[in-house]
Amino acid sequence: MSAALKSTDQDTVVAMHWFRKGLRVHDNPALLHALAITKDTSGPIYPVYIVDPNCYQLLKCSVLRARFLLECISDLDKSLRERGSRLYVATGDPLEVLPELWKEWGVTHVTHEADETGEPYAVARDEGVRSVAKKNGVQVMEFRSETLRPLGNVPGGYVANVGGAVNSVPSTMSSFQGLLGRIDGGNIPLPLDAPTKEEFPQLSDDDDSNKYLPLEHPSDCEDASLTGIVKGGETLALAQLQSTVTARPDWTASFEKPKTSCTEVSTPSTTVLSPYLSLGCLSPRKAWHAVADANRKASSKVNKTKPPVSLHGQLLWRDFNNLIAHSANAQSPGSWGRMQDNPYCRNVPWSSDPKLLKAWKDGKTGFPWIDACMAQLRTEGWIHHLGRHAVACFLTRGDLWQSWEMGADHFEGELLDADYALNNFNWLWLSCSGFFYQYFRCYSPVAFQKKNDVNGNYIRKWVPELAGLPAKYIYEPWKAPSSVLNAAGIKLGDNYPNPIVDHAFVSKENMSKMSLAYDMHKDGEKQEGSKKAAATSSKNKSSDPAKKKQKQMTLK
Q1: Which cofactors must be present for this protein to function (predicted)?
Q2: Could you tell me the mean pLDDT of each successive run of 10 residues in the chain, 556 residues long?
């Protein structure tokens, strides 16, 4: 370590900014504070990222998601080097790695972005780090910048504005919007500028800390078939924001999530900013104000949309989901992401069939649209929200009757935009375990997409073994005559599976199961609507949810 970087004055502040999420230099209050406290004493600052193998093993992190993270880390290092600094990347348990670095560098202060959702891994990690820091005489400071506003019982926080009671937070989007409107008139704080090169203490030319380097991509990350829908990093996040939002004011102002297309096979019909928001490459406040600026510049002839379906609405859904996760874990630690003891989840007696779960994960269900969605997930780490809705419904209440927890775990490992709060909220919603109770409205794995993509182009791309089928049979190959199957080179049960369930039968059977589950747990209801659902379920058949606007949508 260069002598120029070591502190020899006991009064010198030696700061470490610990990147966890929040992999950006713009709108990063924790990083800016680290720079501010070192300025007066001309002390150094060490930007650090720690890869904890236990964390990524716990998350069952896919190759695509690991590669996306590495791209984010590499881009962050580049941004810091442009400012005369760099990113120090270490591997190991933070409780072991951090004290070693503090001792080596003489660190006095650590800043980082707060994790407010109460995710079990993060809670245990942060409690441990605070304890170790206290023993080492290191001051740890956390800053809230993962959401538009703080979640907790702090100034400007959502919980603070419901009297500090975590069990009194809004449980519907409309009531959440009402709460937001009461906080500073609904105004969202402006994002902070990225620090300049002049604000960073410059590294010495003879810095020899080369044991802390950006990670090399593992060889399995180079699989050419795994393309990823976007590449990682703050630089590309800001470019994506510019090209999809800023450069298209009329499109931005008229954006309506339910009307976006799930049939695109090349360019997505949404912003695809969600992967960048999930790792904090893009600040939600930066995104919010970019949308606001575009709305102001839009033509007066444009029919401007409003939350919850607008782009602003997608960011509000994100905060709302995070607030619910915060509330659930505050009431019952670690309950968000599981059925047991979750104050927002209805207990449903799901089945457990490893073969059905594997067929769903592998895209081998025999239902081409479902299989196509799962193939896109595996290859690109992303699916349009309607595709996510369909495969989630299919796994749970629609067809396979498997627990939403299993689906959420799989999505957490595969999605580039995997987010602890949003992912679990969506699975609760789609399985009708929480927040949405019209369980009689079931996605058909055939009819829904067939109306939107008559020729089956999406299936032809993602399930190429079916590409030779005529449009008439592309969604239901089991109905095709043997002559048609032979001409297309398809042998059902061999190179493409037969349907693993009879949708018409199991969907009705599952509605009856849901009705019984609802009747058993009426006393524990937290939301309205289940009584109406139970009363009307017997009068409804499996239907197309698109007939009634699905408003549970997050930025995808």
Answers
A1: FAD
A2: 43 95 98 96 95 75 90 97 96 96 97 97 97 98 98 96 96 97 96 97 62 52 76 98 98 96 88 98 99 98 97 98 98 97 96 98 98 97 96 98 98 96 98 92 92 95 98 98 98 97 96 92 48 37 40 38
Domains annotated for the chain, with CATH where assigned, are 3-146 (3.40.50.620), 354-547 (1.10.579.10)
Alpha-carbon gap, residue 31 to 47, rounded angstroms? 8
> How many contiguous H segments (helices) and E segments (strands) does the chain have?
21, 5
C-beta of residue 188 within 8 angstroms of C-beta of residue 148: yes
Question: 61 φ, ψ to 5°?
Answer: -65, 125
Question: Distance (Å, rounded) from C-alpha 1 to C-alpha 104?
Answer: 9
* Beta-carbon count within 10 A of 339 CB: 18
User: What does the longest C-alpha to C-alpha distance in the chain come to?
Assistant: 85
Annotated binding site for FAD: 270-274, 417-419
Residue position matching structure tokens 């003489």:
106
Please provide the size of the chain in residues. Answer: 556
| C-alpha 12, offset from chain centre | 40
Phi, psi of 113 (to 5 degrees): -75, 135
Q: How many other C-beta atoms are found inside a 10 Å radius of the C-beta of residue 369?
A: 30
Q: Which residues are annotated as a binding site?
A: 270-274, 417-419
Burial of 287 (0-12, 13-18, 19+ CB in 10 A): buried
Torsion, Cα of 245, 247, 253, 257 (10° steps): -40
